[in-house]
Design goal:
Strand content: under 5%
Distance between the termini: 44 Å
Order of helices and strands: HHH
Structural class: mainly alpha
Largest sheet: none
Oligomer: single chain
Helix content: over 70%
Mean pLDDT: 85
Radius of gyration: 16 Å
Number of helices: 3
Amino acid sequence: MHKSKKFLLAGITLLLIGAIFDLFSGLSSGNITELLTSAGFFAMAGSYVLNWPKAQPAGQPLALHKPNKASLALSLLGTVLLVVAFGLRRGWF
């Protein structure tokens, strides 16, 4: 497996672990900030999944590709959700 795929897989795994733990914590306590954090982590993991490198013929290096609009939208949504959750925890809103 190429090094960039390993980093993407590690990032997706960590985001999904965080999302699942925050989801369970938010559901058990009814805390909206935990649910927003979980949704943000799921959106960021989805963005990583959509950016997964395409298969290349053997012997060719991975080609650079532009991220698609859905991936960029999920990344932006995840960032906004995480900032809102952090702001709610800190009492900014």
